[in-house]
User: Fold this.
Amino acid sequence: MPHPYRYLPKSTPQSLITQGEVITGVGEVWEAVNAYCFTGPYSDGGCRMCIPPNATVFVGYGDVSYRYFGPTEVCIGSGGAGGRYPNYVTTADDWAAIGTTNHAVLTGRDVVDSHPQAAITGLVAEQNTQNSRLDAIEAELIRLEQDKLDTANALQLFSFAAYGEAECPNDTAFSDLGAAWQDLDIFTVSNLAAPRGVVINLTNGQFSVENSGVYAVNLSGAIEHDISQSGRITYVRLYNYTAASAVGAGIALGTGRNAAATSVVATLLADIGATHINQALGFQIGDGDTYTAVTFQTLGYSVNAEGEWRGAVGAK
Assistant:
């Protein structure tokens, strides 16, 4: 039955050491022994090493040391018959690996804690250096993250600049007012040469904003109209034409009895989210009583940013 040790194959000539003698061999250890011409102190002079009773024989082959467990009173090696004892051809069962100088051929190298750091020259110092570098990197990442938070918190303390305005010329005639909402598309003049963050469209009376935030939208002027014996009311509202929806509720404009004009003073705060920037906004009027012979006098609007900056650092 084979001896319970693992043998390493050799495909190139290797050194074989027995009692201090360096020899060469090819193949497995038993093959190398059978083909080797022993010439050392245990040789009988005929390329044989004869093994007396109770002898212990060790050979070194390549990086591995082996112990002989085969029969004694035999001669091994390439000399063949003619020695002190009968010639013997060794087999795998005769040899057991007992040690090595090559760490790569050891088993159990991946066992937990089998290699303390101190066993490798300089590893502890190098690991300490790497740990220090990692600690420094981690500290820098924490600092950068805190800087981002500090910057974001600081930006919340400041409002940003955004403004724009437009108005209609005096004596701008308009259709009768009633229950239906109508577009106030009469704002065709602007006295502001360079609005900021607010795009004014003088063709259709609409506007858009370039950044998200809270905006104060002011509408002011006067409406001339017919006279009624009873009080009346109409409404104005901000409308998102891109989304086809109102922005907030309508603001009531009241008219007293026998009044031929109604003042327009309406201010609302609009929270424009990131999904609504650059969308077309404008004003609508209606959803109230009937007014005829309608003419707008100096009706205008202005848009101003009122909230904190919500964009990225360095953005427009």
In short: Confidence is low (pLDDT under 50) at residues 1-17. The chain has two domains: 14-106, 163-305.
